[in-house]
Specification:
Blueprint: E1 11-16, H1 23-37, E2 41-46, H2 52-55, E3 63-67, E4 78-82, H3 89-97, E5 103-107, H4 115-119, E6 123-125, E7 131-135, H5 152-157, H6 161-167, E8 177-181, H7 189-196, E9 201-205, H8 209-214, E10 223-227, H9 233-242, E11 245-249, H10 252-260, E12 264-267, H11 276-285, H12 291-300
Parallel strand pairs: 1-2, 1-4, 2-3, 4-5, 5-7, 8-9, 8-11, 9-10, 11-12
Antiparallel strand pairs: 6-7
Helix pairs in contact: 6-9
Length: 313
Amino acid sequence: MPDRHPEQRLRWDLFCRVIDNYGDAGVCWRLAADLAARGHAVRLVIDDAAPLAWMAPAGAPGVRVQAWDEPLHGPGDVVIEAFGCDPPPAFVQAMAAGAAPPVWINLEYLSAEDWVERSHGLPSPQANGLSKWFLFPGFTPRTGGLLREPGLLARRAAFDGRAWLAARGWDAAPGERVALLFSYANPALPALLAALAEAPTLLLVPPGPAQAAVAGAAPPPGLRVRPLPHVSQPDFDHLLWSADLLFVRGEDSLVRAVWAGTPFVWQVYPQHDGVHHDKVEALLGRMALPPPVQALWRAWNGRPGAAWPGLPG
């Protein structure tokens, strides 16, 4: 991949299409804001900016948001196409016509599978003479790694989660543990709610399929459910830091759960052909989790033949 000096202030164009569940927008906004915080200029070109109204209500210095169908003037130094979203053809033509074409990166989905190491950093020559470089996030030094802004772990260590919850009226009662449920639709949800109710638990549920599933239903005794509104990305991190147990979904929330340092169970995006189970197994293979916790991950992800094991003690 072409060498760039990390201390140089670069102009980045980041292209994002929002498919569903807002995960694409979430990953792209975190990347845009992090690059800008490091001194770069970022233009985020997105086809649906509505989720940013609650993810990043104050925006971020150095990040300019532009609608996908607005005229695009001149590429910068680096172009990132998130998850194979294909920048507009006219923009790609402008990239090829420049005297110094930008570095073109295809930011791929996060995976712990072995093939990611072989694919990360490979070029893909294009018909117009440009090369597109594949960046695969991952969990080893031979991948693109995970996004983490400077000072995050220090901020987490100094954070008082119980006080933060109480300031928002979401505080736990004495003796209650706090769990966070952020998931896709999941047939195992009733079993999880019953298991959580075995000890006094406050269950925080952000908007999404899980919140819709628990709405209007009486929780089992011992479980107190609090639906939450949409929160900004920094406050979502604060939620993760405030809980004792996390159930998270998708890519961005997985990474933020890792940085939270809190016990968590991950739900991968389900795919009709079942290949998502390979992604779960690959991640389990890189984590030193006890067998009962691995069994819970498999059951929560609906692996065929995986019986519900309950919550490990």
